[in-house]
Design a protein that fits this description.
By secondary structure, the protein is of the alpha/beta class. It has 2 domains: 2-61, no CATH class; 70-234, Rossmann fold (3-Layer(aba) Sandwich). Helices cover 55% and strands 12% of the residues. It has helices at 2-10, 14-30, 34-61, 82-88, 92-95, 110-123, 133-146, 149-158, 177-187, 204-208, 211-222, 235-238; strands at 99-104, 128-132, 161-167, 192-197, 225-230. Strands 2-3-4-1-5 form a 5-stranded parallel beta sheet. Helix 1 (2-10) runs antiparallel to helix 2 (14-30), helix 7 crosses helix 8 (149-158) and helix 8 packs parallel to helix 9 (177-187). The longest helix has 28 residues, at 34-61. The N and C termini lie far apart (76 Å).
């Protein structure tokens, strides 16, 4: 048994190593054929590799495992159509290179929804990254200084799903608008974006400080997009403890 385990380790079949003794006992007890035994061990190896790949993608994605779709409070946002969100969770929009725009006031659950959809994408084997919009601008700016700008753009363009959180939370620096446009341009019709924003599109000219650039960015984002507007009240305000009046 130990010699077999050693061979499996040399072949980097760690899942098979862990399962071998248990599967062997099961096979002897149930008189499993050699081929069926081999199939069981290979299945264990495959499951282990799938789990390891998922956790690697999760770590790289910067997603929050606690913000799932199954614990999103749809009752607090009665005007939000749950069936639409569940349909989007199938991740067909990624295969079709479509975008999702989540619009609404601060605190209505946009980031939670985006994160939850990102987790569903991970389960479906997709590569995902969530990043705050202004952090993205900062990373792109710093990458120019160390010569990694094109490498970063290439990495972002190859993701199956890029989640840009809180566009409009604060005004973009003027030297970052071109970089933001470049990310959107490279992913246009080649990779999906989920974008959360508390700004209406008509406010984006002010956000970017450039009407032409704002129009170009919006045009590429909405061309193949689901636009979900959340009009309910803020969770944070709802759950805030109000002082007792005496």
């Amino acid at each position: 048994m130990e010699e077999i385990k050693q061979r499996l380790r040399q072949l980097k079949l760690s899942g098979a190593v862990k399962a071998l003794e248990g599967r062997n006992e099961y096979a002897l007890k149930n008189k499993v054929s050699y081929l069926d035994f081999l199939e069981l061990v290979l299945e264990d190896e495959w499951v282990t590799r799938q789990n390891n790949a998922y956790h690697r993608r999760l770590l790289q994605s910067k997603l929050n495992e606690q913000k799932r779709l199954d614990n999103f409070d749809f009752t607090a946002q009665p005007e939000l159509d749950k069936t639409i969100v569940m349909e989007l969770s199938s991740c067909r929009f990624i295969n079709q290179k479509q975008n999702i725009i989540l619009m609404g006031n601060p605190g209505v659950g946009k980031t939670h929804l985006a994160n939850g959809l990102g987790l569903e994408a991970l389960k479906n084997g997709h590569t995902v990254q969530l990043i705050h919009a202004n952090s993205l601008i900062d990373q792109l700016h710093r990458s120019k200084a160390d010569g990694s700008y094109q490498k970063l753009l290439s990495k972002l363009s190859k993701l199956n799903l890029l989640i840009l959180d809180e566009v409009g939370f604060k005004k973009f620096p003027q030297n970052g608008i071109d970089d933001f446009f470049e990310v959107i341009r490279q992913r246009y019709e080649s990779g999906s974006i989920i974008l959360t924003t508390n700004r209406k599109f008509e406010d984006w000219e002010q956000l970017f400080g450039d009407k032409v650039m704002a129009s170009a960015i919006i045009d590429r984002l909405v061309h193949h997009a689901f636009i979900v507007k959340i009009t309910g009240n803020s969770y944070r305000v709802k759950n805030m403890a109000m002082p007792e009046i005496t």
